Amino acid sequence: MASGGEPEVGDRAIAINVADDSNDLAAVDRADGRCLSSNAPDSPRPPGTGTGCRLLSIWSGLRSSSCHVRVDQPSQSQPRASTDRMLPLMGEVRVEQRGRVLLATLANPPHALMDAAIVDGLDSLVERAESDPAVGAVVLTGAHPERFIAHYEVRELLDGARSGPSVSPRVAKGSLRVAGALRRVPAGERALSRTSAAGLVALERFHAILLGMNRCGAVFVAALNGSAMGGGCELALACDVRIMAEGPHLIGQPEILLGFPPGGGGTQRLARLLGSGRALRLVLDGGPLDPSRALEIGLVDELAPADSLIDRALAVADRLGGREKIAIAACKRAVYEGGSLPLPGGLRVERAEFLAALGTPEAQELMQAYLDAFHNTGELPLYDSLARERALEAGRFGATLDGS
Fold first, then answer.
1. N or C: at which end does the chain have fewer Cβ atoms within 10 angstroms?
2. Which residues are marked as active site?
3. Is the pTM of this model over 0.85?
């Protein structure tokens, strides 16, 4: 603590305000009054202002009607989140490289539950897939013989719920925005993770990981070797391609049977994939689908015999991951982010991605290869079946056009 009693993060003191009446958020650096992150104007905002404000103290939970958050560097005298309910980290993500494809196996015996350790592994996996130029795709599958991921560890959810107060959706929304802002402040996420607000950080982080998959220049393929419920289904939905093993397996969002809605993106990705009517029916009912029905409605892209599932997933991943990573990322962002906007906004996203990719050396090299082939043969390569098939297999036009 500073001598004047103000909380600090490193050498900076942070206040975050969420006003219920205006529903806006500002993270203010007390050192200079600069707005760090906000949907309000970039101007100083005194902490604790706004009508009907409630205090959200990350050390003691939500207090009353809007949010004024103090982040202190933890010390021995400050209360910490209780550790007597903390569960050991059990799960792991085992990764092996197959050419340009990473095969990632989700393991958490005996029940194949998703837990914080699995999330940690996914975080590292997405970061590697994005940053490593030798990785063009990722295949996710489960180690359990009958399950991809059973669902999220309910004990973790229950412990998180019991460690904090019950809040309205409006206050929860503001709290999540606060947590999201603090994750971008140095030491903010670490400080929050040691408090009763750790659940807010964990939820924001999980969503950030899945969004990272949607924006990544590597293709993600879910090889659903078995059932995927709850968080397992949500992880599959965040993948670009879903291939499910034939057999007595199930996929769906059963959260409503436990008294809450899906929280890892299930409602939003189902609605975008299947339409709002079908998505709502699935999440309201809570009943799972078998592989055939999941394929019929478009929840999965194809089915494969169990003994050839991984080979099929690797083949799809190798084909799609052979394209330029810059182009892959641009296509994914245009579809996932632009596709959920009204048409004019979506078209702007597409135009921006198109122009940005067009100027890259990779795109210019491939366009030149196409023109060179046209000049040499007098035929448009895209209308030459042999040249087209070679390009599809290689992921690009280039030396394969003349057979070399």
1. C
2. 234, 255
3. no
Widest Cα–Cα separation across the chain: 79
pLDDT in tens, 265-292: 999 999 999 999 999 999 999 999 999 9
Torsion angles phi and psi, residue 17, rounded to 5 = -120, 135
Amino acid identity for residue 115 in this structure: D
- 177 Cβ contact list (under 8 Å, min separation 6): 18, 25
Condensed to tens digits (0 to 9), the pLDDT of residues 218-263 reads: 999 999 999 999 999 999 999 999 999 999 999 999 999 999 999 9
Measured CA to CA, the distance from residue 218 to residue 325 in angstroms comes to 6
Confirm if 1 and 23 have CB atoms less than 8 A apart: no
Cis peptide before 110 (omega within 30 of 0): yes
Distance CA 171, CA 181 (A): 15
CA distance 141 to 226: 9
Tokens of 31: 């050192």
Cα–Cα distance, 140 to 237 (Å, whole number): 12
d(CA 238, CA 142): 16
Bin 112: left if φ > 0, else alpha if -120 < ψ < 50, else beta.
left
Question: CB neighbours (10 Å) of residue 184?
Answer: 11
DSSP character at residue 242: E
Q: Tens digit of pLDDT for each residue in 85-110?
A: 344 558 999 999 999 999 999 999 99
User: How many CA atoms, within 13 angstroms, populate the side-chain half-sphere of residue 77?
Assistant: 2
- Report the chain's terminal Cα–Cα distance, integer Å: 68
Q: How many helices (H) and strands (E) are present in the chain, helices listed first?
A: 14, 15
Closest of 219, 218, 220, 257 to residue 235, by C-alpha: 220
> DSSP 3-state assignment of 96?
strand
Q: Would you call 114 helix, strand, or coil by DSSP?
A: strand
